[in-house]
Amino acid sequence: MNRISSQQVFANGINQLQKLNSTLNNTYEQVSSGKRVNKPSDDPVAAARILKLDQELSRVKTYERNVNLADNRLKQEESALSGSVDVLQRIRELTVQAGSGSLSANDRQSISSELKERLGQLVNIGNTRDASGEYIFSGFQGSVPAFQQQEDGKYAYQGDEGQRVLEIDDGVTVPISDNGKEIFVNIPAAATGEPGENHTSGYVSGVSVVNEADLKAAYNGSYPDDITLTVDSQGEITATSATGENLDVSPKDYESGEPFTVAGIEATLSDIKQGEESEFTLKVGQKQSVFGTVENLIAGLDSLGKDSPESRARYDDLIAQSLTNLDNAQESIILKQTELGGRMNAVESTRDFLADSSVYTNEIRSQLQDVDYAEAISNLSFQSFVLQAAQQSFAQVSQLSLFDRI
């Protein structure tokens, strides 16, 4: 015969009340928090999946921050480049004005003054900083201004050729910077002519590339460092490349002020004294910074006059070369803007993908974790009723005694 002591009755009753109270508290916590799973024991399988989903959401948020950073940096660079195009367009307009034959010395000085202001404006754009104070065109040297004025008054690039990249999704990176050397410095320069080592008299002018295919063919597809022109005492023009190869000249006979062509380049030689031998150099395929172009233009406006045929020719060459260099600079910047547009499209596409991923992940997480309020409130009411009934029953049973039956 089993015997149940009063102590066992009390212990069983208290345990049952504790279980009912714990269940009620869990349901109450679900209702108050809005979550069906508040701790792993509530639903171990769902809790494990929710943990993985939380990790996925954390990953997405990290990449979304990177996307915003990349977007801001690229938009800032694009804005800076747009500003530089506007400045260069104004400089080009001033250069065209400077080429007018009716300008006085004072007019040229007035143009020079505005060019100096525009040059400073262009340098400021080249030294644009981001929100953290770093120079966006200095490569990896963000703490160093991209362009600084040297002792000779000219501006030089101070950064490196690094390009920063940022990961905006798993395995997806996008460049978020461009160094100023690539954009503002390494710009193809117009062909120029100057006296050679054995120059005795005369000058070269009107140098321009008229047939780029012939130029490339003459150098097997690569640009030369320079071409040496020699006019001998008999008035015959000969040309040699930087590697010593003979190049065809047409016409070969020198005639002052008359153009000739060599390897797709047209030039004019003038005022070489009869019976003398003189040497000149044609510079082709050189690079010149946009700042150097404006600096040379300013120096020419401040110093070159038109009091002799040579001075007029040098001045006209300066204007023509400056216009070509400015066009090349604008083209370089516009090409970079096009490249930036592609990057910005990639960033925007990634932003949309991450946003969709976040929505999808949150929906699955919500299905696993969010509580069904109607069911939870119904359970809460029922469990409250059961607990009250159990409490009342235990109260009555706890008052019973064997002596009550004697």
UniProtKB/TrEMBL annotation:
Matches recorded under Gene3D superfamilies: f41 fragment of flagellin, N-terminal domain
Domain Flagellin C-terminal, first and last residues per copy: 324-400
Residues covered by the Flagellin N-terminal domain: 4-140
Keyword Hydrolase recorded: no
A GO term for molecular function: structural molecule activity
UniProt-annotated location(s): Bacterial flagellum; Secreted
Main location: other
Lineage: superkingdom: Bacteria
One GO CC term on file: extracellular region
InterPro entries: Flagell_FlgL, Flagellin, Flagellin_C, Flagellin_N
Entry keyword set: Bacterial flagellum, Cell projection, Cilium, Coiled coil, Flagellum, Secreted
Residue ranges that the Swiss-Prot or TrEMBL entry lists as coiled coil: 53-80
One BP annotation, GO: bacterial-type flagellum-dependent cell motility
Family from the record: Belongs to the bacterial flagellin family.
Descriptive protein name: Flagellar hook-associated protein FlgL
Native source species: Marinobacter adhaerens
Gene from which this protein is expressed: flgL
